[in-house]
Design brief:
By secondary structure, the chain is of the alpha+beta class. It is built from 5 helices and 4 strands. Strand 2, helix 4 and strand 3 form a beta-alpha-beta unit. It is elongated, with a radius of gyration of 26 Å. 16% of the residues are buried.
């Protein structure tokens, strides 16, 4: 005996897309907190492995961070001066801790904000003043980047503070020490 099975009506393309999107939304609503908790657990365990840094470890890590993000002397542009730029406030704070461990007085530091001209320059300047704990007279006039409307920038809104450049005056000796620390760490 052959059974006559009625086929269900086919779904439209739009209905298929809608149901798939709803399913993905339900999946990620449940999965996102699980992944966030796993990420936090792993991060906390890794942080516990490191613990507090000794001054030696701070010099090693700081020299490597500088070698990755700081200005280096080039054959075509020789310059033995310490200049570090980044947009991450945690990395800027770490670099300042590194300079403290290296014996650099905070009075020898100068700062400059690099930011797009259509951003809130005054708020960014205040943000970096708060991050560094420096005085306003240690900050140079911000450098404004011209906005290119064709570019679809993601770094916009209240959370955008530009980049901060940290310059150390009279830093040729410190630069050479950083170069030595970095090369010894990478050897």
């Amino acid at each position: 005996m052959v059974r006559d099975l009625a086929r269900p009506a086919r779904l439209s393309y739009e209905e298929c897309r809608k149901r798939a999107a709803e399913g993905a939304h339900r999946y990620w609503a449940a999965e996102r907190p699980v992944r966030a908790a796993a990420r936090a657990t792993t991060c906390a365990a890794a942080a516990a492995e490191i613990g507090a840094l000794t001054d030696r470890e701070l010099l090693i890590a700081g020299a490597i961070a500088y070698w990755c993000e700081g200005g280096k002397s080039k054959p075509h542009r020789p310059s033995d001066r310490v200049m570090f730029i980044n947009s991450d406030p945690a990395l800027i704070r770490f670099f300042l801790r590194f300079l403290d461990a290296a014996g650099t007085p905070r009075t020898r530091l100068r700062f400059r904000v690099y930011i797009h001209e259509n951003a809130d320059v005054a708020a960014a300047q205040q943000f970096w003043l708060d991050v560094t704990g420096a005085t306003a007279d240690q900050f140079a006039t911000p450098t404004l980047k011209h906005h290119n409307p064709v570019t679809a920038r993601k770094n916009v809104g209240e959370s955008y503070h530009g980049c901060l450049r940290v310059d150390v005056s009279r830093s040729a000796d410190l630069y050479r020490r950083i170069e030595g620390w970095a090369s010894a760490s990478m050897a």
